[in-house]
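Weekly puzzle thread! Below is a chain. First person to post its structure in C-alpha cell form gets bragging rights.
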Amino acid sequence: MLEVKNLTFNVHENGVERSIVENISFQVQDGEMLVITGPNGGGKSTLAKVLMGIEKADGGQILLDGEDITGYDIDHRAGAGIGFAFQQPPRFKGMTVNKLLSLAAGRELSEPECCKMLSAVGLCAREYIKREVDGTLSGGEMKRLEIATVLARHHKLCIFDEPEAGIDLWSFSMLIQQFEKIHQKKEESLILISHQERIIQMADRIMVIEGGKVAAIGPRDEILPTLLDKGESCVCMDRE
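Winning reply:
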C-alpha cells in the first residue's frame, strides 16, 4: 500500500517561492487503480516525479507497505518496488531495445521474451528488437517501449504519466488491454495520470488535482459523473 501524507513541493521563481504540490494526502491500496486527472499545469506530473524520487519533496511523507521511503532516491525507490513511465521517455543512443528490456527486467531476457513484451504494447517485435533507442524512433514508439520496460518487471506500484500521449488508436487499445490485465490480477497497484475518459473509466478511484491541491477524490462512480456533468476540460472523450 502507498500512503502519502501532506506532500509538498515548491519552486523558486524570480525570488518568489511557489507551491506546485501543496499538502497532498492520499492512499493507494494493494491492487488498486487510482487515476489522477485535472487541468493542465495543475501539478499532476510533478506529483508523480516526487513519488518516484525524481524531484525531492519539501515536506510530507511517503510510505510504501509501511516503509518510509521519503528520503530514498530514484534508484532506491525502484529497488523498493516502484516503476515509472515518463510522459516524454528518455532516449539512449547506442543501446538496443533488447538490452533496454533486459536492464529493466533485471536479468538477461531471451529473444522470445522480448518479442512478447514488445507485441504487448503494439510493436512488431522483430522489427524493433535490435534497433537502437535513439532519435530514429518516434515519440509514440518511445512511449510504447518505455511502457514495455515497466511491464518487464513485477512492481508493488506502477506510475504511468499520460500513457495515451502520442500513440495511435490501435496501440492505445493494446495498452488498455495491458492495464486491464494488471488490474484484474490485483498483484500491483497502479497510478495512471490521464485525461482520457476510457482510462478514467477503468479506475477504482479518481483523484482530481487543481492548482497543486486535491480538488476531489473518491470512487469512480462518484467522481466521473461530476467531471462529465461539468464538462471538465481535463477529461477527453473516447477515441473510438
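Puzzle host: Confirmed. Bonus trivia for everyone else. The first strand starts at residue 2 and ends at 13.
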